[in-house]
């Protein structure tokens, strides 16, 4: 029974870790709800009335979610500075409450300063957010000079409660977050292997569904790898340890993605294109006739299950002989003589399983230290020696790239501050026309749609999502207000539930978050005895007005069009892609070592920024379907290029430590065309009138003079060639949707 209980708890833990990497959403929700509950408890014991309770609850929420620094010391400083900012904000709001023109003018200045403060990093962003939100809550509860002492006391209680929850009850240190992210990576890697198993067994009519699960699992694994990358510097003891973890995470991600491609190829009529894994909605390739042979299929299914077990139990402290036997068998597939009799495509899958098992072994050593080697087979011992040699070669070098800083109105924070100030001024005027008492809802919406957005299109999409969530939230608020009636503490309990749901859902869906916020506000209005259907309808009207004011300001004041923004980010992605490709090929050609994994992660981050910026173009409500499909196709092609570039970088880093891998000076010349084509496309994106053309010609393998009689996988150069050829094909394919001329092959 105990063993069964432990297994159930382990499965539950893995599910939670995979669905919420690092438990970041759960931690944020619990910390915020705890701070609010503690504030309400203290204020109720002090005999505060309901207006002060509501003010304290909102202040506790703001003090908790505004702070984003990773180190606890920096968080403490920001929280300490946030209290006087909050006290000053609530005091000014109370004093200016009866002076409409002066109060509105000050609110606009405060909004400008709060947004401009983002240029000073996380602390500036947090203090600006606290100043704005506390001024807003003062308007919400109707702060006056007479109630100012009580409000200041509520602010102090709220900040102390937030500090207690943050530093004592629900602490989140960088080391702890990184540890939980590692568990999430393992859980998502296991989920991806499960998706690969489903792909193996899927009948023809369910291949599209199985491919979608494989595609989603690959994307989620990559997302977690990027999150780990963001925590490495603060969460590891030194730079060498950070680079080691970075290397092993990259190895595991690449091996898992490659295994999925090999499995897809084995099940279909032709070699699967990497684009299939990255283009949402792309149909599955045609299955190659009847199912694979029973014996080979059964063996493959057994070994994928074994790999799944190996992933789940890596890092669990389980070092039994059964696990060692499984590991030895899977690592044995790295040797040709251990491959089972099967077709060439199926043997490729077994090789991929061997490489995945090696990446899991490397990940376990990097994260948990040396392991028991008494049950190692020769294949496992050799894999350990390779990993040890790689670990010894990793150093802590690397220099920060100097970023060109924009100045004046070109600086994003300055531009956004001006836009928000103009939009808020419009929202104040329009909001006053709708309601002299609730006008601040329009200002809040205008403020919010500018947060984490960089173009007019992004602001439009965010405004639409907020309005949609608000409409449904009003309906929910009406129902909840009717159920609660005059039961104050029942309403507060539901408020806490909705706040937790708001924070837990925020990274997943902005519409859902807006829904929970609006439903919560319906309960708060009930507590303040200002609830009515008219008030909630007014909430929708003010939200629509605020979103419209934000869009107008973004479109007319220092506008950044979506096309311009995406082109800038596309140019950055292409620049990073050229850097990674050139550096990796240079090292594979015998050139000096470079910080390849750092360059690869810079490419991944640039691609993530581009993916976010194209959301207005790919949103389901976008009327321009051709443009939407083109944007999706371009991003998918870039993800394909990034996969091949990452693999080339990972292979290049093996050169110093693997005697079986030798540099080939011919690679530099053969890959030169690909790098030139990437640069050509980047030039054309920056200037559509540029006359450069993308080159085409013989395959890279023929340029290299590859011997057709060389056995597959007989040399590492063969694998490098395949990735270079796929990269070259993807880059040429990228030229067409971007309107870059493609030169005809020469003679």
Mean pLDDT across every amino acid position: 83
SSE pattern: HHHHHHHHHHHHHHHHHHHHHHHHHHHH
Content-based structural category: mainly alpha
Q: How is the biggest beta sheet arranged?
A: none
Radius of gyration: 29 Å
Helix count equals 28
The total tally of domains equals 4
Q: Percentage of helical residues?
A: over 70%
Taking pLDDT < 50 over at least 5 consecutive residues as the criterion, the unreliable ranges are: 396-405, 706-715
What's the N-to-C terminus distance?
75 Å
Q: Count all strands and give the number.
A: 0
Shape: globular
- Proportion in β-strands: under 5%
Question: What is the strand and helix layout of this fold?
Answer:
Blueprint: H1 2-19, H2 24-45, H3 50-65, H4 72-95, H5 100-116, H6 121-141, H7 148-169, H8 174-201, H9 207-235, H10 239-267, H11 275-278, H12 294-313, H13 321-332, H14 344-368, H15 378-393, H16 412-434, H17 440-449, H18 456-484, H19 488-505, H20 510-527, H21 533-556, H22 562-588, H23 596-613, H24 615-618, H25 625-652, H26 666-686, H27 700-704, H28 716-735
Describe this protein's structure.
It comes from Streptomyces luteogriseus. Residues 427-552 form the Integral membrane bound transporter domain. The chain is mostly helical. It has helices spanning 2-19, 24-45, 50-65, 72-95, 100-116, 121-141, 148-169, 174-201, 207-235, 239-267, 275-278, 294-313, 321-332, 344-368, 378-393, 412-434, 440-449, 456-484, 488-505, 510-527, 533-556, 562-588, 596-613, 615-618, 625-652, 666-686, 700-704, 716-735. The chain has four domains: 19-172, no CATH class; 174-284 and 301-376, no CATH class; 415-555, no CATH class; 562-743, Four Helix Bundle (Hemerythrin (Met), subunit A), CATH 1.20.120. The protein has 28 helices and no strands.
